[in-house]
Amino acid sequence: MYRLNVNATRPEFRYLYLDLNAYFASVEQQERPDLRGRPVAVVPMIADTTFVIAASYEAKRFGVSTGTRVGDAKRMCPGLVLTPARGRVYVQYHDRILEAVERVLPIERVCSIDEMYFKLLGEERRPARAMELALEMKRTLRDEVGQYITASIGIGPNPFLAKVGTEMRKPDGLVMLPIDELPPRARLAEADGFSRDQPPDEGQIERRGLVLGERPLPRGPGTPSPGVRLGGG
User: Fold this and answer.
1) What is the mean pLDDT of the segment spanning 45-58?
2) Helical H runs in 70-220?
3) Could you tell me the CA-to-CA distances from 14 to 154, 156, 199 in Å, in that order?
4) Could you list the residue range(s) of the whole structural domain that residue 45 is in?
5) Is residue 115 among the annotated active site residues?
6) How many helices (H) and strands (E) are present in the chain, helices listed first?
7) For the chain, what is the domain count?
8) 206 pLDDT exceeds 70?
9) Residue 177 has what pLDDT?
10) Are 57 and 21 in contact (CB under 8 A)?
11) How confident is the model over 141-175, as pLDDT tens digits?
12) Which of 115, 136, 202, 206 is catalytic?
């Protein structure tokens, strides 16, 4: 049994990476209640010969993803709803998201319209505090931007590995990657059962402990997470 000292400042928890889930499609579902719970594909125009720009998670369950030809996507998912992309709206939401998350942590770098990362300093590198900040960021997105605007968050020693964490648990996930448990195979601590709305206290984390895993790092989205998982499914 490996136990993470939640009171210690662990130098590997230097960065928090936020990756918005199915961003364009999620914005459409936030803006249009009639799209909520339905498979949605954002497209450049309504034509079978074009390609999907973004797919909601309801559509992804049928295999529809970014780059899928629209004609194929309609065959894969008979109930698929096509909606033309609205770049101006996505930029407006992007600005609102930046304003919201900066109330929790200052942004270190905006990587794209749907990805950014933050540098953790001092006490923020304690596992319990880092998780608390991540959960606060999720709540802030829901409360100030919209309940359909969710994000996967990874916490790690550098932006790349923190980004890897976001790919391990989607949508709405939270994964921490302790550096000393990574190569050559990821031995990542696993702790389930926390509420996505209530930050875990240090006693909860300590009581659960962190069980070593023996699975390799995932190769892409959809791979089950062996990491610390809070929220998403």
Assistant:
1) 96
2) 70-76, 87-101, 127-144, 159-168, 202-208
3) 11, 6, 19
4) 36-85
5) yes
6) 7, 8
7) 2
8) no
9) 87
10) yes
11) 999 999 999 999 999 999 999 999 999 999 999 99
12) 115
